[in-house]
Batch of 4 targets.
Target 1
Amino acid sequence: MNNIIAIKGKNNDLIDIANYPGLKINFLGKNSRVIIENPVRINKLTAWIGNDCDVYIGDSVDVRGYLHIFASANKSKIRIGDKCSFTGVTIRMESEPNLEIEIGNRCLFSDKIIIRSSDSHTIFDCKTKAPLNIPGKVKIGNHVWIGYGVNILKNTLLPNDCVVATQSLVTKEFHDDNCVIGGIPAKVLRTNIGWDWNNTSAYLDRISNKC
């Protein structure tokens, strides 16, 4: 099986890749595929793809800045949901096979963000020689806002409708929706919150007009 790259339009028709000069897909192996559904914009999307990898980017994604995908590890799987926006994100899956990252719908990513599902090197117990930093899936729910400079590491779960504060280090699973998560390492800072894509002025105008 050959490598496949396809950009699909609104009616599932194929779009010429030449229409997106900022898209650079570098296949390093075989039997891999990259599918992008009806992108709003691709300013700069660069990917390095290994053997038997699957990269899916959902409908109406906006790469307004850059999205770098290092999926050179064999059998890497990346799924990005619909209507996500990326200012500056690097996804790293470079060493061990069967790594997986899943991002939900309507997520907002700021700049200088790193997401990785493996440490690439081993930490082990001196007595047993057992590895202590086994890689694991990263899953980001729907409508999650990731702030500037956030690092998201292996075995992480971010629930729906959450906000991750600037410069946070996320290293574990969180399970309650509608939270502000932040710190090094990250913890829940506030519960029962929601967030809106508009700035506070536009948001207040909108809710005032609904009253």
Target 2
Amino acid sequence: MDIIVFAAISIFILFKLRSQLGKISDEEKNLHEEREKAKEEQIVAIQKQITESVNKVIEQNLEEENKIREKILGHLDETTKQTMLDILQRCKIDAQFFINGVKSCFEMVVKAFANKDSNTLRTLLSEKIFTAFQSAINKRDDEKKILHSNIISIDKAEILSAQIVENKAFVTIKFISKQINYFTDLSDQIIEGAKN
């Protein structure tokens, strides 16, 4: 009989535990909802901070880009400036990238001319200008002169004009640079210019 009583009590206890286990009291439920709400509010606040930070960085970059653009294009008349902006937009580049690119191109032309690198010159120059450069190289060869060129600095690369003709951009740029240029003969004796 004791076994039946213990079995009945055990079944009753198990039934009660089963009905209570896995249930959340209203207090625990409210506490859980408050925690979830606090987490969501924290996430929203962090997202807002990130968005504000990103927008601030974008705004600062735009301001900096506008300052650089104004420094590079500010001296141009309105028509030329607008044409230059159109060229930059079509190429999907900014003014600073363009100026850095033309400076690099200028250096490449000077080095290629000194080294008699006709392939590079043909790539970088128009046919008319390439012909003039090639004639100067040929004349130098005939006179058995060797040109030594070294660009010390490019102090200024100033846009003078810009136009678009038949979907081609033509930009005239004035370079002011410090260079060392001198000629030697075949025995490496300086015959024109100086090393400094």
Target 3
Amino acid sequence: MHLEPLHLRAFNTLLNGGSVTRASLELRTSASNVRRIWQSLEDQLGEKLFNSNDQGEAVPTSAALALDRGMASL
């Protein structure tokens, strides 16, 4: 499996920013593009990475935290 650097950057920004809106502002792209990247990563990995709560926050799953730990070694 090959994960695109842009997708990994968006994942990291979403994980650290906690919301699609904040990630889109930091990445200077649309919220819909961040959601598309999020969905693409989930499709490639076959696991849910974030859950959305009532406040619009992206809450990381255990799979997202594991991916983050794996990226730390890169």
Target 4
Amino acid sequence: MGIPDSVLLKPGRLSDREFDIMKEHAMLGAQTLDAALRAFPGVKFLEMAREIAATHHERWDGTGYPAGLAGPAIPLSGRIMALADVYDALSSKRVYKSAFTHEIARSMILKDKGTHFDPDVVEAFAKTEEQFIHIRARYVEPHAIAA
């Protein structure tokens, strides 16, 4: 949201400046939802959407962005979306990479338990991973899965 296509669709690695631009999407999304909340105050799904937009790139260990929140200071909705967003990014084809298999995405998520991700959210993912597999299979692009 609000990110130039030259950055969003770049096939190679982003420069530091491009990555800084990419990181702006979290606050741009939150600001957009702030405007919606001014027009429709108290609408719960907009409040949660704003919370998710603003916090889905925070990391359990505090090294995320935009606010550097850590642990339980990150709203649960943002902690859940952080894992879901990474799973989707790993298991989907992008202009700069092929899709990873579920097994590879799973191992990467498990490795980041307690650093990137809330350990309880990772445990919930592990207990429900069959659902992730079925949902991914329903939406996967043909020939999108690599090794």
